[in-house]
Amino acid sequence: MRWLRHGIGWTWLALGYTFVFLPVVVLVLFSFTSRDVPLPPFEGPSLEWYQRIFDNDRMVDALVNSVVLAAVSSFVATVLGFLGAYGIARHRSRWEGVMRYVIMAPITVSYLIVGIGLLVTFHVMGVPKSLWAVGVGHVVINLPLCFSIILAGLGEHQRNLERAAQDLGASELAALLRVTVPVSLPSILAAYCLSFTLSWDEFIIAFLLTRFDVTLPVMLFELLRGGSSPELNAAGSVVFGISMSVVLIAAAVAMIGRRRA
Amino acid sequence: MSTPPSSSGYRFDLAKWATVPTLLWTALFFAAPLLFMLAVSTWKRGRGTLDPVWDLGNYEKIFSKSYLLQGLFNSLEVSLIVVVVSVLVAYPLAYMLAYRVPARWQKLLLVLLILPFWTSYLVRSYAWSVVLGDNGIVNSALLAIHIIEEPLQLNYRRGATVLGFVHFFAMLLTLTIYANLVQISPSYHRAAADLGASALQTFIRITLPLSLPGIMVGAFLTFVITMGDFITPQILGGAKELLLPQSIILQIQRAADIPMAAAMSVLLMLAVTIVYFAFSRWLRLSRM
Predict the structure, then answer these.
(1) I need a surface site. Which of A5, A37, A226, B132 has the fewest CB within 10 A?
(2) Tens digits of residue pLDDT in A20-41
(3) Do A149 and A103 form a contact (C-beta atoms < 8 A)?
(4) A 125-154 → B contacts, CB under 8 A
(5) DSSP letters spanning B52-81
(6) Do the bridges between strand B44-45 and strand B50-51 make them parallel or antiparallel, or are there none, so unpaired?
């Protein structure tokens, strides 16, 4: 009985990992095919499809839009998340519970609802669809994550450093910029990177709030209407590659930060 | 950076005001738009403009036209199926990772588990549609070993949507359940065994109840995200059966009926809120 139970367990684990990896392996593998469909049997390898997406101006524009959107909206989300976390951690208030609840609230609502809310509001107010509108939405959805990651990194030992700085004559602002920010830099960067990867491949808000300056996911969605193509595999693999690089940077930064602490 | 003078006696309390911009952003761009959406859901689409009629006409229409209400029912059904299947797939995975896999391999396997999810969900759904297609890997493999003679129609049906969702949420639930399982002290298991419980009894009466919080947190997230996702059913499910997010997008794109889309979004939010309160015992938002 025991060996049977273990056998089933290990088989389940192997099947589970196969299931999880299957689509990603298929995606990346068939981006290198030399056939014009992303289907078996595999022939190649060839970089033809990567060549094709980087020759496509609209695709490159969408890629640039996505990167700029993610970089800017994550910066704003990280700054606001940091300010919120700093205020909560360093100022005793009987409203603390309420404030935390308000800041965290957007994560209980689907991206779709956040997007529709902004769409309706901007529509009635006459604000045109644009990348800026999408950026506003991305800050809303990423702010709670940045806030909670940075808050978790603002410990008591840092507070002592801040006090020491202030005792030595630094103003609160100087202590904030010269002590608090550098010391919590690992969690700030982790928040920024996570926020970047989420904003960078977010679809629905970008889909609802842009018209001409589309992002890469919206562009891919439009392409999908023409059916599957190795070009989509290649573009999808690029999206995956950029996300992975950002995650690896974040992990490396976190590891260096831990070693130093 | 120069130090601002602080000799004037008045000191600006930075920490006290630091939360203000953050709260303001959330109020302006999250809370206000949702309230506004609620207001607009009582308006009507006019000729090229919106009529603020302030009535429940849109809601009456949703509940009297079955094709509008059907989206909500489909979404509830699919979300429920996805939650149940994902828990059933994920629990044994989390259990194996927490109790059977040697400790030094656990971290590596967890990282590997998360890896595929840095592809965007749009790309993942697309990849599944390729895998499940008539000439895709699954059909090719089944044909090659002569289990089937004709390719199976796997795409563009509810099963494909569920599969796409389960793929993501099995990973998420494995993580939340794993995090819970490793916190359970092994002495509970030993005590149960000492008192004569069989392995199965120990699991049902000790491990399972203690891992319930992990299941609940994961199940709630699964439900919320599944209810609100447009892309997975759109790419994998085809157009025969619409889920609520698809109906909402259709109202915006085809009918250009923003008040109706707002009313349907309010219903979606309401459904999620009801479930949130049902789960609230296990979810402590203010502690996250």
Answers:
(1) A226
(2) 999 999 999 988 988 887 887 7
(3) no
(4) 136-137, 139-140, 143, 147-148
(5) ---SSHHHHHHHH-HHHHHHHHHHHHHHHH
(6) antiparallel
* CA separation for the pair A252, B4 (Å, rounded): 36
Q: What is the domain count for chain A?
A: 1
| A81 domain residue, yes or no | yes
In angstroms, what is the C-alpha Rg of chain A?
23
Q: What are phi and psi of A182, to 5 degrees?
A: -60, -40
CA distance A55 to A51: 6
* CB A161, CB A184: distance < 8 Å: no
Q: Which residues of chain B have pLDDT under 70?
A: 1-12, 284-288
Identify which of A127, A149, A236, A231 has the alpha carbon closest to the alpha carbon of residue A194. Answer: A149
Distance of CA B198 to the CA centre of its chain: 36
pLDDT at residue A149 in the model:
92
Per-residue confidence (pLDDT) for residue A261, from 0 to 100? 57
- Determine, yes or no, domain membership for A40: no
DSSP string covering B184-205, please?
Answer: S-HHHHHHHHHTT--HHHHIII
Q: Which of B110, B132, B93 is nearest to B232 (CA)?
A: B132
d(CA B264, CA B63): 11
Distance from the B157 Cα atom to the nearest Cα atom in chain A, whole angstroms: 17
**CATH number corresponding to B65-287:** 1.10.3720.10
- Tokens for B62, please give them: 């949703």
A165 interaction partners in chain B (CB closer than 8 Å): none
pLDDT, residue B174, reads 92
Q: Which member of A13, A20, A93 has the closest CB to residue B116?
A: A20
- Is A23 among the domain residues? no
pLDDT at B12: 65
The pLDDT of residue B6 = 45
- pLDDT reported for residue B10: 53
Residue B213 tokens read as: 């919080």
Q: Is the pLDDT of residue A71 over 60?
A: yes
Q: A-chain residues within 8 Å CB-CB of B261?
A: 116, 120
Beta-bridged to residue B51, according to DSSP, are B44
Helix (H) or strand (E) holding B20: helix B19-26
Please give the pLDDT value at position B260: 95
pLDDT for B8 equals 43
Token pair for B106? 């656990």
Contact B262 A247 (CB under 8 A): no
User: Does A109 map to a domain?
Assistant: yes
Predicted local confidence at residue B284, as pLDDT: 61
Q: What is the CATH number for A114?
A: 1.10.3720.10
ipTM rounded to 2 decimals: 0.90
More confident residue, B158 or A253: B158
Note down the domain range covering A137. Answer: 65-260
Of A95, A109, A73, A99, nearest in space to A151 by CA: A99
